[in-house]
Structure formats: structure tokens, C-alpha cells
Amino acid sequence: MRLLRSTDLALRVLMRLAVADQTTPTTREVAAAMAVPYTHAAKVVAELQHLGLLEARRGRGGGLALTEKGRTASVGAVVRTFEGDGDVVDCEGTTPCPLNTGCRLRGALRRAQEAFFVSLDPITVADIVTEPTGPLLLGISRPAP
């Protein structure tokens, strides 16, 4: 299973903000630090804000800050939200699979996908930024002098 770019970015934004201390980077700064287009980062930030996982303040002194809900959020829940509840394979797409009515693969893949999510459920955002990850994140996200 491969995560969508938006899921990957959402997790990285949450991780970056989890180690931000008193700083409040802007969406543009986060996008630049992660080498992703600003528009893509802005969409992900808007969704994370809608979920209550981060706060975004505009204007002078504004920026992004992780909420307590974001710090304690389950990685599994974040991944589920961004990935959606679609199947790993598309059995009924534009050219439906001829085995669709008698195939056991779809169910097996659904169970494997759910096992993937379940394995991430007990892990929080705070858990994934403990050492050595947190200090490393801070090091790569600081602007060069």
C-alpha cells in the first residue's frame, strides 16, 4: 500500500509542528521546508485545521500551531481520514474485473488494509517525534543563516 501524497504531507506537517516549540511557521515556510508546492500544502493545512489538529492564524505574528488534539491524534486516524475508505484495488472501475462476483482477493486486501490502519491506531503524533526524529526535524527545517 502506498500513501497518497496528501496523507504523507499531513503527517509531515503534524510532525514538524509537534517540534516547533514557540515558533509558528507559515504554510509557505512549511511547504518550502518540505519541498512541496504551496497550493498542495495549503489544502492539507486547511483539512488539518478543519479536523482541529492545528490552528492557523493570519497576519503579523500568525502561522501554524499544533493543537493538543493534534499532538495526541492517532496516526491511524489521520491516515484513515486522508486515505478515505476506498478499496486498495478498483474492481468495479471503467473496466470491471470479470472475477468480481467470485473473487476472494478484494476481501483479503480490505482486511490487510484495515490491519495496516489498526497497527497505526495506538501511535500518536507525539510518539513519532520523540528522539531522534524531533531534533532531526528541527535541524532540517531551520532556515540557513
Keywords:
single chain, 145 residues, mainly alpha, two-stranded antiparallel ribbon, 2 strands, elongated
Q: Could you explain the architecture of this structure?
A:
With 145 residues, the chain is mainly alpha-helical. The chain contains seven helices and two strands; from the N terminus they run αααββαααα. Strands 1-2 form a two-stranded antiparallel ribbon. The protein starts with a helix and ends with a helix. The mean pLDDT is 86.
Short description:
The protein is mainly alpha-helical and 145 residues long.
The fraction of residues assigned to DSSP E strands is: 5-15%
| Straight-line N-to-C gap | 39 Å
Order of helices and strands: HHHEEHHHH
Radius of gyration: 18 Å
Class computed from helices, strands and strand pairing: mainly alpha
Biggest sheet strand line-up: 1-2
Overall geometry: elongated
State the total count of DSSP E strands.
Answer: 2
What level of helicity do the residues show?
40-55%
Lay out the secondary structure.
Elements: H1 5-18, H2 27-33, H3 38-50, E1 54-57, E2 63-66, H4 68-71, H5 75-83, H6 105-120, H7 133-141
Antiparallel strand pairs: 1-2
